[in-house]
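pasting for ref
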Amino acid sequence: MKTLSPPLKIALIYCFFGVLWIFFSDRLLGLLTSDHQMLNILQTFKGWIYVAITTLLLYLLIKEDYQKILEQENEKKEVFIATVAVMQHILNNFLNQMALFKLEAEECEHFDRTVLDLYDEVIDEADSQIKKLSAVHTLTQQEIKDSVYKK
């Protein structure tokens, strides 16, 4: 059986409680008094009690579901930050390999120096972008995009 969505579950619980309250509280008041003036006063108090109880009930039901939502959002954030940290590690390893390649290439006398200069630019740019990503928990989605994509 499919579970109910939190809003529908809350609405159904509220409806069920409301129907029970009206049905049984009216019967109880009818048993307590037959005086119409007293019945009016008791009906008013009954309404206030209903508002207080349903306010508490709604608070508890909403709080439970809201807490679940917050936990899910925190879990998503932790997974995102862990993913970015792993990406940074992979990219740093790649940059280190590029730097090693550059060191080896500098030892070759026939290697084109303009290619080595281009390597320096690529390594510096990638290193700069990785450093920007290291602050990912404080960046907005747009700032992350801007740090990666050239304008």
